[in-house]
Write a structure and sequence with these properties.
With 244 residues, the protein is α/β, with parallel strands linked by helices. The chain has 7 helices and 9 strands; from the N terminus they run E-E-E-H-E-H-E-H-H-H-E-H-E-E-E-H. Helix 3 crosses helix 4.
């Protein structure tokens, strides 16, 4: 366990939204740790708080109370720009809607992230080429998003998230816009990014994705109701019978 770093530590985290006179509690006193070497699924019904928790754990949202440490830095206690810097270097994001620049090629969509982190143009394009090749897009480097399938666009998004070598990759329903076979192939690409130093956290309600998981965290009504290891080497039939 000691060779797998703690990537995220949340302690007694709550999140409330205020709109006029109304206040909504989205998360209630959640404590959880994520480590390198784990592919974790965050599962729950619609409105359970799973996306809010994902955003809090990855530093996109500041909790109303409690403490969040991201890559060892207490981002919940840092100024906005300091937290953003930790997030930019430590976390790679993959969203259902891809969030690619439509006017840029796959290569330039990935290289853009590396430019922002200080790489030269040559370094950025070389690294972008390498990571796009790793996700199976060596023959699509110079295609724009409109010229790619949904699965290919999501692979570009994964390559962009991985390009800066973040410790944590997070996906918010990354297969939601994809058909079954394409979605499973994309999750396999994400699964392949797990290393002892890097973890992956995916929000989903798709039970089929359990076959890729090392760990499953279930949330309901803003509270974690279950957190358990998962045997991803189990057969599909065995997986289907373990309906927690």
């Amino acid at each position: 366990m000691t060779d797998r770093p703690v990537l995220v530590r949340a302690v007694d985290v709550s999140k409330r939204y205020v709109s006029g006179q109304f206040e909504t509690a989205a998360l209630h006193s959640i404590s959880v740790e994520l480590r390198g070497g784990e592919f974790t699924l965050l599962m729950g019904p619609s409105g359970s708080g799973k996306t809010t928790l994902l955003y809090v754990l990855s530093g996109l949202l500041r909790p109303t109370s409690g403490r969040v440490e991201l890559c060892g830095v207490p981002v919940s206690e840092r100024a906005g720009w300091e937290a953003a810097e930790v997030r930019r270097n430590g976390v790679g994001f993959i969203f259902q809607s891809y969030n690619l620049f439509p006017a840029l090629t796959a290569l330039d969509n990935v290289a853009e992230v590396l430019y922002l982190k200080g790489a030269t143009r040559a370094q950025a394009r070389a690294s972008a080429t390498q990571v796009l090749t790793q996700v199976g897009l060596a023959d699509r480097l110079h295609h724009r998003p409109s010229e790619l399938s949904g699965g290919q666009r999501q692979r570009v998004a994964i390559a962009r998230a991985v390009a800066g070598n973040p410790a944590l990759l997070v996906g918010d329903e990354p297969t939601g816009a994809l058909d079954r076979s394409t979605g499973l192939a994309v999750i396999q690409v994400l699964r392949d990014q797990v290393t002892p130093q890097r973890g992956v956290l995916v929000v989903t309600h798709d039970l089929r994705l359990r076959r890729f998981a090392d760990r499953i965290v279930e949330i309901e009504d803003g509270r974690i109701i279950a957190d358990y290891p998962w045997d991803r080497h189990a057969t599909d039939q065995e997986t289907d019978t373990h309906d927690h």
